[in-house]
Amino acid sequence: MGARSVATGEGPRSPGEDPGASPRPDPAPGTSRREVGGRNLPVAIAVGVVLASIFLGSLFWHPVAFSLLIGVLVALACVEASRVLRPVGVQLEVPVLLVSCAVMLVGAYQARHAGQAVGVAVLFIGAVLWQLSDPHRRDVVRTLAATVTFGLWTGFLASFGVLLVTRPEAAVVAVIGVVGAAIFSDIGGYAFGVAFGRRPIAPSVSPNKTWEGFLGGLLVATVLAMIVLPLMSDRFSVLGSAVLALACGSATFIGDLVESMIKRDLGVKDLGDLLPGHGGVLDRVDGILLALPVGFYAVELLLRSG
């Protein structure tokens, strides 16, 4: 469903590396470049290619297939996060998360925004009832806050991907535009950040993210969107494609910062380890999740005004 945020010059990092840590030094003589920082780059690339193939295959096959893929990724992200957070004293109500996220996704497919609202209600009410029914409850506020936060972060934001793929027109192109802008702003941000990064944006959260990398990533995503999207659909103008890429690229960057902030606060280095060379599912799609609602509303405004 997308690319793990490496935007703006953080440099390759292992799945267990602190997202706010300083860059690792160059490997010692004789160390393989294939595993700099403990990250096996060929494995990471292979996993990325497989995920991209599954993403495109489901997208071009049928909206149901793409929505199911989103559902599987959301479920895996919730289960992984629960396993990682339990040792640091944060409990997630996994059954509530799985049921409410399913309601959000199915609701978005069947009833669009009304279905999303039902899912959010199920999330909050379910989390409260789960605590009321547990005679051994403890840290109630923290558990409720964590469960609702992760439910909104995963299920609710991901449900905008369902809204995009079920649009009445240009659905596939809209999804490619939003997710593509997220991915290529990441890739471009990494390249520009490594080459030119000097001025950090948020050193207290992630010191290696720079303005040069951020702006370079936006440039790459915008140029590609202006070339590709108008060729795929006449509903996307060159200017509209640029606006979409800028909005989604910026949201991707913020989404990556948000996850870094949360992991730093919780004292964890990744929110999973399911994907070799990348970390967990949520680590992989953190930026894309925030790009989905931003992209959805950007597409709605652009196509309606066009």
Question: Could you explain the architecture of this structure?
Answer:
- The chain is mainly alpha-helical and 306 residues long.
- The chain has helices spanning 41-61, 63-85, 94-111, 113-132, 140-165, 171-196, 211-232, 238-266, 281-305.
- It has nine helices and no strands.
- Helix 1 (41-61) packs across helix 2 (63-85), helix 3 (94-111) runs antiparallel to helix 4 and helix 7 packs across helix 8.
- The longest helix is centred in the last third of the chain and has 29 residues, at 238-266.
- The protein starts with 40 loop residues before the first helix and ends with a helix.
- How much helix is in the residues? 55-70%
Main sheet overview: none
Output the structural class. mainly alpha
Give the helices and strands as they follow along the chain: HHHHHHHHH
Number of helices: 9
| Backbone shape | globular
Uncertain residue segments: 1-38
User: Can you tell me the number of structural domains?
Assistant: 1
What is the CA-atom radius of gyration, in angstroms?
Answer: 19 Å
- pLDDT averaged over residues: 87
Question: Strand portion, in percent?
Answer: under 5%
What is the strand and helix layout of this fold?
Blueprint (H helix, E strand, L loop, with lengths): L40 H21 L1 H23 L8 H18 L1 H20 L7 H26 L5 H26 L14 H22 L5 H29 L14 H25 L1
Task: Give a brief description.
The protein is mostly helical and 306 residues long. It has helices at residues 41-61, 63-85, 94-111, 113-132, 140-165, 171-196, 211-232, 238-266, 281-305.
